[in-house]
Amino acid sequence: MPQSQDRQYGAMNLKLKVHEELLDESLEDARRYTGADATTSELLYMMGHDHSFAAEEEADLVAALQHAEGRKGDRVIFSALTDYMEAFRREAEKTDLQVLHGEMRHTLKEGLWTTLMGRILSCRLYLKQENARVNAKVLTGAEPLAAAAWAWGAEYPAQFLDIAWRKLLMNQAHDAIGGCSVDKVHFEMQARWSEVDTIADEICRRSMRDVAARVDGSAIDPADLQLTVFNTVPFARGGVAQFSIDLPAAQPGEEFVLEEVDGTSVPLQVVSREAYDPTMEGGFDLNMPFAVERFDVRAQVRPLAGLGYRALRIRRGASISPAATNADILRDPHTLENEHVRMVVNDNGTLRMESKADGRVMDNLGWFEDTAEFGDPWNRKTPENDAPFTSREAVARVEPLHHGALEAALKVTLQFDIPAGKTDDGQRTKETIALPVALVVTLKKDSPLAEVTVHLNNQAKNHRLRIMFPSDLPKATRSYAEGQFDVLERDIALPDATGFKEPPYPTHPMWNFCGTSDGTHGLAVLNDGLTEYEVVDDAPRTVAVTLMRTFGTFVFGRPTPGSQCLGEHTYRFALLPHTGGWAQGEVVRHTREFITPLQAIESAPTRGDRPAEFTFLAVGSQELAFSAVKQGDNGKGLVVRVWNPLDEPCNFEVAIGTGAEKGRLMSLEEKPDERVSIENGVATVTAGPKKIVTLCLA
Fold first, then answer.
1. pLDDT, tens digit, for every residue of 440-460?
2. Comparing C-alpha atoms, which of 424, 421, 431, 428 is closest to residue 461?
3. CB distance 228 to 270 below 8 Å
């Protein structure tokens, strides 16, 4: 196959040349673009760009600049960023610098090269979702479980985690995770995530095995089975959890109950059962298949205090107590209801949600908006008078998926027509194509979250698709969203940007959740890795979450068919109505529990010497956000990292079950700072407002 013609352009341009006749003009341009905003006389000019390499002719350019500027008394040097920062600091220390606060995501007002390019937040969102999923599997699964196993003598898989992090970081290059590259780059990213996913899965499995094997399961009858349930984060949590339970050599119709080792019943709901043939993987012989009956169950787990486990008994041959099957969450074919919320599916597939805490009702939640997209990774472009296509006139079909006292789910199917693509003259096609959508609405016992999973099959091109959640909070003036070690609040109304080269964006970045509040009531939308939202400046203050923004060409005109995002897509949301703002509504805690499920490993009763329930590490404040639990980079000590999203300090205790006697605060680079005393297995720590706290326990 012949080479692409595009790759041949510039093939002979292998030699750079200094054009001395253009030096004065170029230097004046450089001063004009940078001097107005400079706070010192040290001006920085970078050589090349993010995809270029060093050229020996750069030395000739610097020499010519030095000669030209020497006549004017200026000094031009070829240096490094570290040297520049040192020179900048020396001069800045003598200057009364203005202190800036806030997010500082400003669009370009004047000048060059500082465009925000905020549209990459919605480019190839399937990449952002996979990034979030795999990151969470490492941060809230593999690392803390490996740390727990290591605390009891297992080898810490440092080399495997290093491989995982190296591959994760390779995928964070800005044009990679931004979704701004050619298709081949993004195929390679998905291969890396797949490798990390495999590593994290295996570390989780082996770590849970190593801990469970140390548990004293002698209270469990040898004919029964053991289910060791793990909380992988150092915060107390329980609730309804999903587990798979296998019964080897099960009799037809055989049932079982779930109990704590003292015989206390654990409420249980069987969602489905099937015959299954797993394999015994010993590593020394052929994999050996055997027959089991596999049960998909929901269990109401009593709260676990922190990072730790509880061993449960699977008692075979017993029937689930009738008391556990009353108070069905499914109230009628369109209605789910628990202790906190009531959900009704409307005829068009949208949701009506009633919060029992304050009686507030939000209606028409979850309709879809589709508009044109003729831009590229960095820019949104639409034709004039682009009218949105919506699902509000759709006719939905509703059917129960499963139901019981612990969990019920409704499946909502609908479709609406959207333009198939783009015409040659820059309009949306008259030809339309059906967009089929299936929503699964789930409600769990004792949970204020209404979970919504969206499945869709996109066969249209050049469009932006969003899901819309009207908050019915007309007095709300600000949105909120999780960011990097912070919860950020942003004005809903756009500022006056007259004369800006890059107008402000109504859309913003998020991580894990977004929402809005009028100070008295609020609505949070939790999600599984989507990164762009908008709280629309309309009467109902609609929370809009971007599902996809698709286009077909790279900025230089090179085709990138993968950016059309054709095919199957799945999105997970949870709706959380709350009182007050996001802090009062405990949005951080509920988000942590939504994205970090309890995990479990099944086995025969184990014969170790450890208790049936144990907590390795417990952070006493639910207001804090979780970052990491891991072995220290130097191989010594258990590192726990949390951050305070509040505007006020948070005093908290860390209960330590590992036997650590020394505590020390550390920087993010794990450089030691002040010591923290440990008394009776408890360390007391203060997290300042908007501060990250890293504590090493040894």
1. 999 999 999 999 999 999 999
2. 421
3. no
